[in-house]
Amino acid sequence: MAFEIDRVRGAYPALAEGYVHFDGAAGTLVAGPVSDAIAATLRAAVGNRTTVFAPGRRAGEIVAAARAAVADLVGAAPEGVVFGSSATALTYTVSRALSATWRPGDEVVVSRLDHDANVRPWVQAAERVGAVVRWAEFDPETGALPTEAFDRVIGPRTRLVAVTAASNAIGTRPDVATIAALARAAGALSYVDGVHATAHLPTDVVALGADFYVTSAYKWSGPHLAACVAAPSTWDSLRPDKLVPSPDAVPERFEFGTLSFELLAGVTAAVDHLAGLDATAAGTRRERVLASMSAAHAYTGDLFARLTDGLRAIDGVTLLPAPKGGCPTVSFRVAGEAAERTATRLGDRDICVFAGDYYAYEYFRRTGGPAVRASLYHYNTADDVERLLAALSS
Asked: Global pTM?
């Protein structure tokens, strides 16, 4: 396992502008090979998908390559990869299709820790059909989302359990495999928000037991495009509203209108880029992705310990609690100062952090309101960390 930070950073042209980026949880910089692939596709003769002429066949090849790339990233079947404009849009698509089979008195389970994109679509779908919403509560003292919180609310009428693979606010990683198993034992489906986790961890949706797993490419060096993966047979059981002449096969049944072929080319390039983070990784692309993401996770883990230790040592800085072993994301507050003001002052020093609730709406309703978030990505350095700590100390 090898991680050469100078080589890795060299693949991100935007770093040359000199900003310090702790905003990866909101969206990472795009890797150079990704923007190259997008530009090359826009310059090429690419028609809409058809088999009767070469530019149309090229479009089909781009789509197939992107499905295979996402499948290699998360350990899924290419035939089960559905693309959409965002994780939010895809979750609404799935929620509408699933809720068409729900009845009054059925139950859905959501958590207070999740990004609202994995809460509100399910709450609203339940309200439309008269289903009951059950809430899995996190522990505000530790930031943990224990499996017991789900065990208490999953029952024989549960139809869907939604849970995050990692909190975008504090990095907490719930035990998704156990939670998904609880859902399955009750005859329910599980929908896992992998938007934050996929950027930081080697991912295996089969090991997680997720019936649906959603991820956004712009959180892992790619373009603004998302994918939701499930077993092809799971997709085949759902009938979304669609145009009559549009494809009825899986996965095309769930992709409305013409896909963005240039962005799909960027998705493939992003996965290829991630597979090369560890220069010594060998084997299939899937094997190289697993090795490279493990190397990146180890690198950012060491850096994150340095960041959190440094933040705790600064008078007036309070970290929101989170269990160890999560993704490298921390939220904090500076005494006597609004979070937006802290983020603005850091931004004036070219240090990019976010302030607010970052759409972790239910979490921040219960933890005192907005905070500042610093999220590491594999192009961050120890110098970045020291620059942030020095700015806060001053």
From this structure: 0.97
